[in-house]
Amino acid sequence: MKEEKWYYVSAKLLWQNRYTGLAFLLYAAIFGGIFFLYNIEAEAVLYAAGLCALLTLAVLPIRLAAGSRAHGQRKRIAGDVEVMLDEMPPPKTLAEEDDQELLRQLKAVYDRNLAAWQNERRESMDYYTTWVHQIKTPISVMRMILQEEDTRENRELLAELFRIEQYVEMALNWMRLGSDSTDFIFQEYELDGIIRQAIRKYAGQFIRNRISVCYEPTQVRVLTDEKWLLFVIEQLLFNAVKYTREGRVTIRVTREKVLQIQDTGIGIAPEDIPRIFEKGFTGYNGRADKKSTGLGLYLSRLTADKLSNRLWAESVPGVGTTFFMDLYREELKAD
After folding, report:
1. Burial status of residue 311 (CB atoms within 10 A of its CB: 0-12, 13-18, 19 or more)
2. Is 179 helix (H, G, I), strand (E, B) or coil?
3. With 74 labelled, which of 23, 222, 228, 279 sits at a CA distance of 20 to 30 A?
4. In sequence order, which residues have a C-beta less than 8 Å from that of residue 232 and are 6 or more positions away?
5. CA 260, chain centre distance (Å)
6. Does 36 have pLDDT greater than 60?
7. Distance of alpha carbon 191 from alpha carbon 323, whole angstroms
């Protein structure tokens, strides 16, 4: 939270008590008027007013300091109001007491709503998790049936079945990423092993679409969560297969630990590049394809952010697109 200058806080406190100062001037004017009507010397009024002014100037710094401390305490509590609400300074006026009671009532309502929302989300997560595991059974049975006979029609159906599986996994990961208890486990992994898992998974799609894969094994080790990094790579490969009609997909890792996935697909319009990671954004290609959900790249960026990795893209329409993911981390050294 931005720290305010002492003179700015003091000015606001003085302005807050402006009516007290105006009342003092009004009372002095009333006394002066009455003394004038009774032909009493004005020196008495001026003397009394001067003494009151001196006393005010003596007490004013103390009042401003106390007001500034109370303001600072309230600002500190505002930074973590859910935990520190009970540390509010004791109310000095009836209005402050009423305001603090209102805050406590609002906090109670917030806690009830939060608990209800968390319970509802847990139930939804349980439902989607069960649904995903149940739907995998008929998908597996359909795959076994379609693999019994190698025909063009069966190969097309297997490809569509593969896409269904991807969307099912996407729905489950959508729920997991929004959960407070996302199961991230960070440790060092061989990047080559994670990339090979993704390539094997999409091997059938590459063959079906006659897309060659160029990949040179890497000895790079990265600190990450294997499952979620694999999810990002799979989403980027899914995007590459979807928009590449012919040609190749090239996967490489630079010395700076930047993963690059490059395709020779239709590319992305320059005006769409800044928004491709937005939720629900499909862009020109997505609208032309009629099947894009605008969630794949959004989930990829969301996952990359949770992994503390930067994800971005460069593209030339008609030439292809390259996605970059920076996997570099500073090495932690014990003293």
Report:
1. buried
2. coil
3. 23
4. 300, 303, 304, 307, 311, 325
5. 25
6. yes
7. 16
Dist. CA 100–CA 118, nearest whole Å? 27
pLDDT band (50, 70, 90) for residue 290: very low
Tokens of 8: 């700015």
Average pLDDT score over the chain? 83
β-partners of residue 188 are: 223
Question: Rg for the chain (alpha carbons), in Å?
Answer: 34
Is this prediction's pTM over 0.85?
A: no
Residues in Cβ contact with 1 at an 8 Å cutoff, skipping those fewer than 6 apart: 75, 78, 79
Please say whether the beta carbons of 247 and 265 come within 8 A: yes
Residue 23 pLDDT: 83
If pLDDT is split at 50, 70 and 90, which confidence band does 175 have?
confident
Residue 212, φ and ψ in degrees, nearest 5: -85, 150
Query: Which amino acid type is present at position 87?
Result: E
State the Cα–Cα distance between residues 293 and 103, nearest whole angstrom: 42
- Name the amino acid, one letter, at 297: L
